[in-house]
């Protein structure tokens, strides 16, 4: 469904991504892991059209999306929940979740999309009227992911959904990601800590200094010494 073919990205004359090739199939959960600065966010930003690759191809459902604008890519069914949770502080939780249904129309009704978002993180339902400004870090993460779900995407890019969260909140985020996948939506998530790779991931890809150095199943990743050295776990 999503295919990156030998993507090269240069920023200010230094190579940030080198020959990145990866695929995400429909409904698949793929975990892109690598240390801080390895190139995970740059990979996501290239897919979303924020960064223009110097060479290589990015195809979505057989169509090239390289060079497209971010809003066009979103319209085609790819949503992005950035590392720094994207939440509007002056809007309530309910307003934050409803917003994507106003900006992007899909075949599903707004009501259906909003209820899907609450289904992923039921806790948000209780906070409907709370202002985005008064959410904890974990709640902001949930809201940011819920907003991406309300876009009704076929593929969600989640950049470090567990980063900076206390161990107590991690299970509810993890359950949310599992339920997104149960809805049949594909997920490509970035992670810098091997301990956070979900057991239910279909594929693990390891990125190191802008290059992919490993691709395999979760158990292959966990028993690979090089992978453990890079990301622990
Ligand atoms: N706009 C930019 N200008 C200059 N360098 C950049 C820019 N964006 C990214 N880089 C560099 O590219 C490399 C990869 O960064 P990237 O943010 O993709 O890493 P990451 O794997 O997401 O790391 P983290 O786990 O810390 O989020 C880093 O060395 C970073 O400093
Ligand atoms: Mg990053």
CATH superfamily: P-loop containing nucleotide triphosphate hydrolases
Strand content: 25-35%
Overall helicity: 25-40%
Average pLDDT: 94
**Bound ligand species:** adenosine-5'-triphosphate, magnesium ion
Radius of gyration, in angstroms, nearest whole number:
17 Å
> What order do the strands of the largest sheet run in, or round the barrel if closed?
6-7-8-3-9-10
Question: Which topology does CATH recognise?
Answer: Rossmann fold
Estimate the global geometry from the Cα principal axes: globular
The first-level CATH class is given as: Alpha Beta
Total number of beta strands: 10
Word description of this protein:
- This protein is of the alpha/beta class and 233 residues long.
- The chain has a single domain (2-231), classed as 3-Layer(aba) Sandwich (Rossmann fold).
- It has 9 helices and 10 strands.
- It has helices at residues 40-47, 70-75, 93-103, 110-120, 123-126, 137-150, 170-182, 218-222, 225-231, and strands at 2-11, 14-24, 29-33, 55-60, 63-64, 78-81, 155-159, 186-191, 203-208, 211-216.
- The strands form 2 sheets. The chain has a 6-stranded mixed sheet, sandwiched between helices. Strands 2-1-4-5 form a 4-stranded antiparallel sheet, covered by helices on one side.
- Helix 3 packs parallel to helix 6 (137-150).
- The longest helix has 14 residues, at 137-150.
- The mean pLDDT is 94.
